[in-house]
Recover the amino acids of this structure.
C-alpha cells in the first residue's frame, strides 16, 4: 500500500489547540487552576446541563456519576453489553452488581421493553449507552425509571453534541458521563465529565474526584484546615488538559458537521451493497456519528471482510465484544446467549474510518475499498 493507513477514529489537533496547551503550560497552575472551571462552565453551557464536573477519564466519570447517584453494595444497575467494559466495571467497583439487558436492533441502544422486564427490587440505576453517537430512546426509558423511582445515568462517551427530540445530550438523563479520549467527540488526551442538572449530584461528584475532601473552614479554624468527608480518589483533570478541552469544545460544531457529512456520503455511496446493513438515524434523533458501524448480512464472512479491509489500509475495528463474553464476567456466572440482539450485532459489525480530519479523498478511498472488499469476501 502506498497510501497511509486510515484508523477508524482519531483526534484532530489544530494550531490553536497547541497554543492553548502551551499557554496553560507556561501558567502558574499545571493541575487544578482557573482553566478547569472555565472548561466546566463552557461544557455545562454547551450541553444545557446545569453543572459539569471534569475528571481524569470517561471511566472516572462513570464511577463518579454512579457514586453521586448513591450506588453502593447490594444495589444493581441495568445496562446493555454492547459497550466498553467501563460502563459495567465502574458499578462493580462500588460493590454493586450489573444486569445486562438487550439492545434495539436498529440503533444498538437499550431496548425499553427489555428494561421494563428486567427492573427488580435491587435496581437503583438504569444506564443506557448512546451507542455510536446515537442517543438512546430516552422518553421510553424515562417513563420506566420515573414509574419505578430509579435514577437514569447516560453513558454519553460517544454522544457529546448529539440530541434527542431537540434536547441535547447532557440533559437527557439525571447524570451523563462523557469521555475525552482521543477518538471521542472532543479530546483532552485522557479525560471525562459528569453532566447533571442537580447541584447535589455535582457536589458529590466533585468530592469523589478529590479524595472526599471538603474545604469549609469554620471562622476560627487555622489555614491548613480541611476535612475528608467521604472515600474518594484522585480523579482530577489538569489545567493543561482543560485548556485543550476548552479549545476543542470551540470546534465541536465543526467536528459534528464534518462527521455528519462523511456519514451522509457513506450512506449514499454504500447503499448499493446488499451484503451490508447500514446504520440508521431515527427521525427524533440527531446522532453525533461517533462511529460508522456497518453490519455484514452473513456473519460467517465478517472476519474475512474485516481482515481484507485492514490488509488494504483501512484500520477498521469492532464495537464491541459484548461485555458478558469476557472471562471476568463469565466467572461472575454470565453466559453468551443472554442478549441475543447485541450478540448478533457484535457478530456482524465492522466500524469504518470516521473522524473529522478525514479528507474527501480519504472518504472516497474508504467507499472504493469497502466495495472491493465486499466483492472479494462477502
Ligand atoms: C470510551 C468509553 C468509555 C470510557 O472512557 P475512557 O475515557 O476511555 O475511560 C466508557 N464507555 C464507552 C461507551 C466508551 O466508548
Amino acid at each position: 500500500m502506498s497510501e497511509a493507513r486510515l484508523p477508524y477514529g482519531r483526534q484532530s489537533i489544530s494550531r490553536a489547540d497547541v497554543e492553548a496547551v502551551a499557554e496553560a503550560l507556561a501558567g502558574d497552575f499545571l493541575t487544578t487552576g482557573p482553566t478547569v472551571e472555565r472548561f466546566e462552565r463552557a461544557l455545562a453551557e454547551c450541553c444545557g446541563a446545569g453543572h459539569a464536573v471534569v475528571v481524569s477519564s470517561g471511566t472516572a466519570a462513570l464511577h463518579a456519576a454512579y457514586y453521586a447517584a448513591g450506588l453502593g453494595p447490594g444495589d444493581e444497575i441495568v445496562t446493555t453489553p454492547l459497550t466498553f467494559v467501563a460502563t459495567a466495571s465502574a458499578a462493580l467497583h462500588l460493590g454493586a452488581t450489573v444486569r445486562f439487558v438487550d439492545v434495539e436492533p436498529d440503533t444498538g441502544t437499550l431496548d425499553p421493553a427489555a428494561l421494563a422486564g428486567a427492573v427488580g427490587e435491587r435496581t437503583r440505576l438504569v444506564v443506557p449507552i448512546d451507542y455510536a453517537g446515537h442517543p438512546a430512546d430516552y422518553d421510553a426509558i424515562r417513563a420506566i425509571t420515573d414509574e419505578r423511582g430509579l435514577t437514569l445515568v447516560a453513558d454519553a462517551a460517544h454522544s457529546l453534541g448529539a440530541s434527542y427530540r431537540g434536547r441535547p445530550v447532557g440533559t437527557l438523563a439525571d447524570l451523563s458521563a462523557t469521555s475525552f479520549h482521543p477518538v471521542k467527540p472532543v479530546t483532552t488526551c485522557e479525560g471525562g465529565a459528569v453532566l447533571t442538572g442537580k447541584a447535589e449530584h455535582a457536589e458529590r461528584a466533585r468530592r469523589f474526584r478529590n479524595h472526599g475532601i471538603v474545604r469549609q473552614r469554620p471562622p476560627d479554624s487555622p489555614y491548613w484546615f480541611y476535612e475528608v468527608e467521604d472515600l474518594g480518589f484522585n480523579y482530577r483533570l489538569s489545567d493543561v488538559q482543560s485548556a485543550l478541552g476548552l479549545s476543542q469544545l470551540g470546534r465541536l460544531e465543526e467536528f459534528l458537521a464534518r462527521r455528519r457529512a462523511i456519514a451522509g456520503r457513506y450512506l449514499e455511496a454504500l447503499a448499493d451493497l446488499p451484503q451490508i446493513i447500514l446504520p440508521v438515524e431515527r427521525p427524533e434523533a440527531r446522532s453525533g456519528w461517533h462511529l460508522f458501524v456497518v453490519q455484514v448480512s452473513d456473519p460467517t464472512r465478517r472476519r474475512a471482510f474485516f481482515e481484507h479491509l485492514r490488509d488494504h489500509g483501512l484500520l477498521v475495528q469492532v464495537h464491541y465484544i459484548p461485555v458478558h463474553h469476557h472471562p471476568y464476567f463469565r466467572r461472575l456466572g454470565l453466559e453468551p446467549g443472554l442478549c441475543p440482539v447485541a450478540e448478533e450485532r457484535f457478530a456482524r459489525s465492522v466500524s469504518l474510518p470516521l473522524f473529522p480530519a478525514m479528507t474527501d479523498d480519504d472518504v472516497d478511498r474508504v467507499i472504493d475499498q469497502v466495495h472491493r472488499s465486499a466483492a472479494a469476501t462477502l
